[in-house]
Amino acid sequence: MIPVSLQISGFLSYNQSVTIDFTQFDLACISGANGAGKSSLLDAITWALFGEARRHDDAIINSRSKSAEVILIFDYEGHRYRIQRAKTANKATLLEFTVQDDGKWRPLTEHSVRETEERIVQTLRMDYETFTNASFFLQGRADQFAQQRPGDRKRILASILGLEVWDSYRDAAAERRKRQESELAIIDAQLEEINTELSEEDQRRKNLRQFEEQLAQAGQLRKSMEESLGSLRRLADSLAQQKNMVDLLQNQVVSARQRLQANADQLSERREEHAANQAQVAAAAEIEADFKRWQELQAELGRRDSQAANFNQYQQQRSGPVTAIQTERARLEQESAGLLTQQGQIEEIQQALPGLDEQLDASEQCAQALSERLDRRGELEEQRQQRIQQQADAQSENKRLREEMRLLRERIDRLAESSGAACPLCGQPLSPDDRLALIADLECQGKEMGDRFRQNQHLVTENDALLAEFTAEVNALRQVEADLRKQQAQHAALQTLREQNAGRIDEWQSGGARRLSELKRILEEEDYAHEARAELAGVDAALRELGYDAAAHDELRREESAARASQERLRKLEAARAALAPLERQIAGLEKQVAADEKEVTAAEAKFNEADGQYRKAAAALPDLNGAEDQVRDQKERENQLRMQVGMAHQQVEVLKSVRARQKNLRAQREDATRQIGQLRQLERAFGKDGVPALLIEQALPEIEAQANEILDRLSAGSMSVRFATQRDYKDKNRDDKKETLDILISDTAGTREYEMFSGGEAFRVNFAIRLALSRVLAQRAGARLQTLVIDEGFGSQDADGRQRLIEAINSVSHDFAKILVITHMEELKDYFPARIEIEKTDSGSSAKVVAP
Q: Do 23 and 98 belong to one domain?
């Protein structure tokens, strides 16, 4: 990973946006005072890549900012990537991951932050722990790799060397082995089933012979039953023919009876019709008199219809003025209703006026009270500004007093620690008594400063409480101001409504009330539509002169309608006179036909009774045909079932051939699966930590050891060397095997000791040599993934000679890395590097500037 640019804003000590261009240098130091923000640059890189830093969650956000954001652009294996990570207070982290294609950024961001972080780790092929162990000498963590437990050292080294791919090979082999074992278990279960099935062969052949014998017996019985059924069916056919003859005779009896009944019914109808015609002829005089009366009523009705036509013409002339009178009255009533509604509204307004006046008075009084409360805001604001100024002066003085007290304490400590005759501060001669007096005087000054400091702190605390009260009261007055504006607007609205209501009352009293009274008189006296009323009076006079009586006309219509039936009665009388003779002839013929039908019915019933008796006697002697057919059908069904059982038994015997072939095939598959499982188990062991990865680590350790000793030789002037031990004896003396480990053994002038026995500057040199050897070896390997080296505060534990050697070691490996960054706060070291990033802490936050040749 080679950084190209880093942009930080609102992150840790960096409040304002800061951008660092890494393309301006290959080797540089990051310099600045303690706490300026040097290590925060490295935290920004690891936070962007892995979400890891010294602080977590909202703690990484600058105290003056609401959010933190880091944008890191870097090159890796021929591609350029960009990571943008942002965190807003009390909200979730945002993460975007993109790669540059043809000058455009293509997103690689996944559905969630966790999935995106996993993709970044997969892309870099290293996690935070591996990254910092191999490439970052973080502040206070230079010994992180060496301080790991021996087992963890091997795991981290394997990850740094890219050996995690062998874990995937081992997992793939294990997965394939498990699949083969599952398939082997299935094959064994299938073979078990096949063996069980083959053991049933003798029983299956025995069942087949039994079913075949039962089928032959059932076939013979079915043929015998079918022959008996044939004889029975021939008897049934003969009886059926006899039954058909009986049914035919019965139908003839029914037909004869139906003809007899039909002729008898017709004879009865003709006799009734003859009697009705004779009754019509007997009432001839009455019918003819009614017909004459109807003719007279019809003539009178014609005269009244002519008179009614004249009456209708006058009625049509009357509808015009009646409509005009009704229209005018409706208009006047509508106008009156509208004025009544308006009168009700005016009465409601008059009733509401006293309450509206009271609201106006109350609104005016409330506005006056709010205005009086606002008069205090200016005084409060002035007092608040005074307190703010006092607080600022006290804080400024305390800042100065804190620095002066610190310097004073240093002077007192130097005087107390000094045992010489000269003052350690100014170099002048100083006796013990004078030293004690000077210390007492300085302590007195310090006490005065401390008292003043505490007074100022008390004043700041007191002002904080007062300012909170002033702020709360000023905020409350802002609400009062809003309430005043609202009250003034409400008062203006009430005043406008009061004026509008008074105007409506005046308008009603001047016009609407008088018009309502006038309309009431006009409607009561019917003083409207005078022309239409005159026209209506003329038409009514003409109607009275005509003398038409509509009721009498209607009565005449009813009498004529009632008498109209005499015309139909007269027609029926004439028809009855003409029909009497033909009816008498038809009745005589029907009487003869009924007598002949009665004789035919008697003869047909005698024939039917004789045939039916013979049939019933023959049917009683016939055996049960349906039962015989059911027995034959049941026997056929049983024979079919036996035939199916024979087929199934035969199939169960024949299928054993294919089962034996399948058994042979499964045995071959089992042998193949067993062989593959054995091979895969060998691959698992080879791909495991004690297999190929262990061999690769064994091969890499001599090279790392040689590189570390080369660097350590320069750092220690040839007095120290390092050796890696990958195995050790178990505590159990009875065990012949060795325990896998990764111990670090250091040799110096005092002998060989484990790494844990060293401390201070010597331990740092060992750590630096091992870590730098790791990075250097990886950088020299084909397809190396670590191309950046960062050293954070590694010089404080070294003397001048040790620092010089560290710098020489760094320069000696600079050609193996694309970027090397060294962080230091020691001013004398800045000039040893060709470029530097200067970090400065200001009131607005940390700032960074690249100084390159």
A: yes
For residues 823 and 560, what is the distance between their CA atoms, to the nearest angstrom? Answer: 135
Looking at 563, 580, 610, the residue that finishes a domain is: 563
How far is residue 238's CA from residue 614's CA, in Å, rounded to a whole number? 13
φ, ψ of residue 163 in degrees (nearest 5): -85, 0
The answer to whether 816 touches 823, Cβ cutoff 8 Å, is no
Whether pLDDT at 139 is above 60: no
Do 473 and 416 fall within a single domain? yes
Residue 3 pLDDT class (50, 70, 90 cuts): very high
Is 405 a member of any domain?
A: yes
Q: Is the residue at 698 inside a domain?
A: no
Distance CA 785, CA 791 (A): 18
In single-letter form, the type of residue at position 494 comes to L
CATH number at residue 37: 3.40.50.300
Task: Judge if 505 and 404 occupy the same domain.
Answer: yes
> Where in the sequence is the domain holding 485, given as residue range(s)?
318-563
Strand partners, 725: 743
Residue 246 lies in a domain: yes
Torsion (CA) 495, 498, 504, 506 in degrees, nearest 10: -110
- pLDDT of amino acid 783: 45
Same domain, 370 and 459: yes
Give yes or no: residues 555 and 631 share one domain: no
**Distance from the Cα of residue 776 to its chain's centroid:** 51
Taking only the tens place, the pLDDT of each residue in 38-48 is 888 888 999 99
pLDDT over 80 at 192, yes or no: yes
Residue 528 neighbours by CB under 8 Å, 6+ apart: 325, 328, 329, 332, 522
Q: What CATH number has the domain bearing residue 395?
A: 1.10.287.510
Q: Are residues 265 and 373 part of one domain?
A: no
Instruction: Examine residue 592 and state whether it is found in any structural domain, yes or no.
Output: yes
User: Which pTM does this prediction carry?
Assistant: 0.41
- Is the pLDDT at 365 greater than 60? The verdict is yes
Q: Model confidence over 73-117: pLDDT tens digits?
A: 999 888 999 999 999 988 889 999 999 998 899 999 999 999 999
Q: Could you report how far apart the first and last alpha carbons of the chain are, in Å?
A: 24
Rounded Cα–Cα distance for residues 585 and 566 (Å): 30
Mean pLDDT computed over every residue of the chain = 80
Say if residues 845 and 16 touch (Cβ distance below 8 Å): yes
Which residues lie across from 254 on neighbouring strands? none
pLDDT tens for 290-304 read 888 888 877 877 777
- Per-residue pLDDT tens over the stretch 705-730: 888 888 778 777 778 888 888 777 77
* 370-392 b/e (C-beta count within 10 Å ≥ 16 → b): beeeeeebeebeeebeebeebbe
Number of domains observed in the structure of the chain: 4
